[in-house]
Amino acid sequence: MAKHTTKIDLPVSQIRRYLEPGPIVLVSSAHNGTHNIMTMGWHTVMEFTPSLIGCVIAGGIHSFGLIRRSGECVINLPTTALTDTVVGIGNTTGAEIDKFERFGLTVQAAERVEAPLIAECYANFECRLAEDTLIDKYNFFIFEVVKAHVAKSPRHPETLHYTGDGVFMGLGKMISRRSRFRPGML
Amino acid sequence: MAKHTTKIDLPVSQIRRYLEPGPIVLVSSAHNGTHNIMTMGWHTVMEFTPSLIGCVIAGGIHSFGLIRRSGECVINLPTTALTDTVVGIGNTTGAEIDKFERFGLTVQAAERVEAPLIAECYANFECRLAEDTLIDKYNFFIFEVVKAHVAKSPRHPETLHYTGDGVFMGLGKMISRRSRFRPGML
């Protein structure tokens, strides 16, 4: 499995390019010497500046505790090359295995958080908890993205989009309508 | 432009099939005899039952007032066949024009809300405001989907996914891994 070793910094205000299309992401976390990875499909961009992401993390799972206690995570963006890894991560629990080890993924140190980056992913967004008001009622976290790493190419990665029932869709065809947007609407 | 006239009811707990992949949607609203349509890319599924959707609606736009005051909206799902309509809706304001009229869209009565369905869209999800705690601070609304209408075919519509900068991606290739999921994880 290839690592995306050549990554560049992306201004955090621009991560909508990768997250607004709605891909499945891998969320990595760490606390007190242990780390874990979960899949996440329920997330949305909420603001450009500060760069905010809202997401649902199920209360019963192993990652919930690590993220709740550390107040940090990394949102990693896999492409279709990692489909089977994504499925494996979503169908196992970090209470029983080390998912980095089991799935042959490379721990890479983040710059601004303790949670690790997954080197094999196309992009990595380092996050700190920004708002906890709706965690108890809805398991809804709002994170601020404090650092963004993105592979230099391709410009439009083929991301995975989950429909439930074991079926993903790949994001494929580019459709540009740039010339038809008013400048302020881009 | 073809209407999707043959629609069936979908259990509201199953709308993740269409919204979890992260498409651009058209949100229709009505209040005091006026209606409007906006584009929306910042939304996420939050719960199966009740069927909850969280989304950001910019405070300055015309639809914000209609939705805030009525506490209702319809989330309509366009496909790539409606690309230019989506761009037109996103680049105009309902303060100046009637978007149904301008873009040749058909108003269809909803069953559970006053806001209209857009007949030309693949699916229509009737919504009532369920939680307003984060509206003032983040323009973040949580809606309960109270009724869902979906076209009978195709099973996997080619939806539009926005990356910013005037560029959409179409959701194309189906990738099934159903056999590799544990039953409880589907």
What does this protein structure show overall?
The structure is a homodimer of 186-residue chains. Chain A has 186 residues and is of the alpha+beta class. Chain A has a single domain (7-185), classed as Electron Transport, Fmn-binding Protein, Chain A (Pnp Oxidase, Chain A, Roll). Chain A has 5 helices and 12 strands. The first copy, chain A, has helices spanning 16-19, 62-70, 83-90, 99-102, 135-138, and strands at 7-9, 25-31, 34-40, 43-47, 52-56, 72-77, 107-108, 117-118, 123-131, 140-151, 160-162, 167-176. In chain A, strands 1, 2, 3, 4, 5, 6, 9 and 10 form an 8-stranded antiparallel beta sheet that branches. The longest helix of chain A has 9 residues, at 62-70. The first copy, chain A, is globular, with a radius of gyration of 16 Å. The model of chain A has no long low-confidence stretch (mean pLDDT 95).
Largest sheet features of chain A: 8 strands, antiparallel
CATH topology of chain A: Pnp Oxidase, Chain A
3D shape of chain A:
globular
- In DSSP terms (H or I, runs of 4 or more residues), the helix count of chain A works out at 5
Largest interface, with counts of residues having CB < 8 Å to the other chain, equals: A-B, 59 and 59 residues
Order of helices and strands of chain A: EHEEEEHEHHEEEHEEE
Q: Could you report the average pLDDT of chain A, rounded to the nearest whole number?
A: 95
Separation, N- and C-terminal Cα atoms of chain A: 35 Å
CATH architect. name of chain A: Roll
List the uncertain runs of chain A.
none
Main structural class of chain A: alpha+beta
What count of domains describes the coordinates of chain A?
A: 1
Give the oligomeric state of the chains in this entry, treating copies of one chain as homo and distinct chains as hetero. homodimer
* CATH class category of chain A: Mainly Beta
Helical content class of chain A: 10-25%
- Total beta strand runs of chain A: 12
**CATH superfamily of chain A, please?**
Electron Transport, Fmn-binding Protein, Chain A
